[in-house]
Amino acid sequence: MAERLQKIMAQAGVASRRASEKLIEAGRVKVNGVVVTTLGTKVEPHDHIEVDGSPLEGSQKHVYYLLNKPRGVVTTASDDKNRATVLDVLSDVTERVYPVGRLDYDTTGALLLTNDGELANQLMHPRYRIDKVYVAKVKGIPTNDELKTLRQGVVIDGQKTAEARAEILRTDTRKNTATLELTIHEGRNHQVKNMLKKVGHPVLKLHRERYGMLEVHDLVSGEYRALTHNEVQQLKRGKQVRKSSGRL
């Protein structure tokens, strides 16, 4: 049965469906020797598909890893500035995995990597509304009104963020800093940093404590582990948890 090209690519572990669409639009995909740039192109099981000149392998075993991303590592497969990537950290993983979403270069914490394009696409879709729990150390001590603004949403680049959960975990009046927990379910670029900057409290340090029900309390920086079968099933069902250690 014919399937959309980007779906087949995602199922084969090339990239998420959205990332596969970008590969197609960039002219990096061939079907039966012909470059295809039209999204929605359907292919048959017998069609020969190439990505960057390499044949697309059949559906492979799906693997899932949770990484406690260290600072100074980029969340991409490669980097034109020759910086270390998350794939360098997972150097002994033989499968071709890719990160689900992104964390900034200087942001640490929970990052999921997989070759399951269908699940990755589901998790990154706005309708999925998966919780992302961050612990942020900021300049200044937010007031109740500023916390209320964060919870109700702030306008960034002309668009208001969705409602969030925000609470102060601890303060340091001597250094005039505070540590907050902020839970969002959107995935805009630099969203947490921009939200906190908008209310007058620039981020000094940022750590993603949890992604859905996946937490990194037991992983040291740079350490990773395979997800259990139960965790994968919970992710697919969209299970969430709402508890934090507040660790930075």
From TrEMBL:
Pfam families to which the protein is assigned, alphabetical: PseudoU_synth_2 (PF00849), S4 (PF01479)
Q: Which SUPFAM superfamilies match?
A: Alpha-L RNA-binding motif, Pseudouridine synthase
Q: Which PROSITE patterns match?
A: PSI_RSU, S4
Q: Which GO terms describe its biological process?
A: enzyme-directed rRNA pseudouridine synthesis
Record's GO cellular component terms: cytosol
Is RNA-binding found in the keyword set?
A: yes
Q: Which family does it belong to?
A: Belongs to the pseudouridine synthase RsuA family.
Name the record gives this protein = Pseudouridine synthase
Look up and give the organism this protein is from.
Weissella kandleri
Q: What is the lineage of its organism?
A: Bacteria, Bacillati, Bacillota, Bacilli, Lactobacillales
